[in-house]
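Need a sequence for this fold. Nothing fancy.
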């Protein structure tokens, strides 16, 4: 049998780098990935990684099914990179099988935790670098447990927490090598002003900070927030998201200190009147020190249908920020 016949019999063999690119392109298509893993043996491991790199245990049957899979095929655990754990009714019973088999999940680098998790349940996952925590009753003890469990943590996101005076003394918070910090406070005008203890503990290493504010900040809160932000000696990337134009107006005069390379502003204009206010606020700001400014505007649906108003909005925005447009550092996402 000649070489041509042999190639026709065995089929075309893709170089590994091409196979990896094909698998990466099919990353979200689970059905096709499974078909590829069954069709071509060399593609099995790559397809397996893209299929189970993320696993969520939002329901008890998901946790028990995944634990059963790890029991019979422990090698699969090495392909898991992101794990989402949900605490149901303050009980760890449905998660105990996974926690017992955590030795097979040594390559997990991203954890998403929903609920109140104590440190002794977190340390079983080893060197995790990225954590996203959903906890409406987060306290200082929660912060200490998380940072003590993962001393190599570089990315921490805290969503839907209530700013209560239960953080405890600031000096009880451990130092950490964080580079990216994201906070989404669940604050209403009825709650007390946040104390931002996370910002004051050890901010020398944080270079990326994201804050989402869903209520109007008073003067005291604005002063306290920026007093903490000014301690961020390595801060280069700042992102603020707020539906309140009043909060944005109070924040803008203080966003003009040197060192910020990228500034991202997320705003929710609800009418053309809000758009006019936004343009006025932005036109008074000084972005001379920023190398990139990103405006993310989430407009109401009825505004998107009025092309005349949207065209007027774009024109007014470009005129008010013509300095940024001339420098080529402005990016607007609607």
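Here you go.
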């Amino acid at each position: 049998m000649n070489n041509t016949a042999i190639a026709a019999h065995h089929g075309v063999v893709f170089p590994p780098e091409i196979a990896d690119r094909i698998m990466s392109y099919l990353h979200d298509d689970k059905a096709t990935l499974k078909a590829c893993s069954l069709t071509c043996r060399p593609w099995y491991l790559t397809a397996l990684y893209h299929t189970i790199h993320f696993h969520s245990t939002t329901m008890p049957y998901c946790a028990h099914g995944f634990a059963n899979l790890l029991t019979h095929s422990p090698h699969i655990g090495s392909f898991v990179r992101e794990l989402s754990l949900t605490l149901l009714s303050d009980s760890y019973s449905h998660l105990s099988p996974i926690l017992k088999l955590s030795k097979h999940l040594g390559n997990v680098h991203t954890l998403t935790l929903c609920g109140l998790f104590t440190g002794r349940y977190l340390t079983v996952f080893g060197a995790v670098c990225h954590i996203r925590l959903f906890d409406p009753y987060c306290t200082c003890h929660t912060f200490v447990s998380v940072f003590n469990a993962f001393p190599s943590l570089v990315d921490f996101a805290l969503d839907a927490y209530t700013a209560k005076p239960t953080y405890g003394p600031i000096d009880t918070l451990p130092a950490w090598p964080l580079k990216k910090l994201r906070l989404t406070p669940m604050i209403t005008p009825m709650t007390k002003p946040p104390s931002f203890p996370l910002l004051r503990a050890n901010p020398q290493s944080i270079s990326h900070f994201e804050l989402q504010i869903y209520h109007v900040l008073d003067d005291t809160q604005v002063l306290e927030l920026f007093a903490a932000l000014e301690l961020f000696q390595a801060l280069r990337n700042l992102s603020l998201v707020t539906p309140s134009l009043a909060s944005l107006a109070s924040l803008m005069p203080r966003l003009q200190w040197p060192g910020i390379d990228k500034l991202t502003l997320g705003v929710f204009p609800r009418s053309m009147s809000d758009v006019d206010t936004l343009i006025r606020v932005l036109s008074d700001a000084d972005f001379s020190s920023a190398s990139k400014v990103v405006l993310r505007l989430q407009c109401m649906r009825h505004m998107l249908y009025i092309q005349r108003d949207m065209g007027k909005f774009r024109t007014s925005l470009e005129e008010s920020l013509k300095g940024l447009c001339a420098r080529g550092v402005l990016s607007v996402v609607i």
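For context: The two ends are 62 Å apart (CA to CA).
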